[in-house]
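Technical note accompanying the year-one report. For the benefit of new consortium partners, we illustrate the data format agreed upon in the data management plan: each record pairs a sequence with a structure-token string. No post-processing was applied to the example shown here.
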Amino acid sequence: QGQLAESGGGSVQAGGSLRLSCAASGYECMGWFRQAPGKVREGVAAMCAGDGRTHYADSVKGRFTISRDSFENIVYLEMNSLKPEDTAMYYCAANLRIYSGGWPWDSKDEYTYWGQGTQVTVSS
């Protein structure tokens, strides 16, 4: 484990798509968060290797998809139908915890490791 590294951010027009990547090895649960200027950091999506279940914020359900390539040790966030309100710095986060049931995937306190962030800008 170590520092996470995001990539794939950029500028797109509304309705466009982007795929974020996070190089990650040895983590149990991975999450994507975002933070817009003047706003709190919010959970966008998460998944754990153990059960493979995915979790999404209501604002991105049906548009974003989190996935994990265990062979390449990369976690992706596929973002489609992007909206101007999706504009934010996106962060990859990870922890080593194993949960037996539900867990507060969208709480920043659940994650120990964080990336530096990658900017996503969506213009109207």
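Partners are asked to follow this layout when depositing records. The mean pLDDT is 93.
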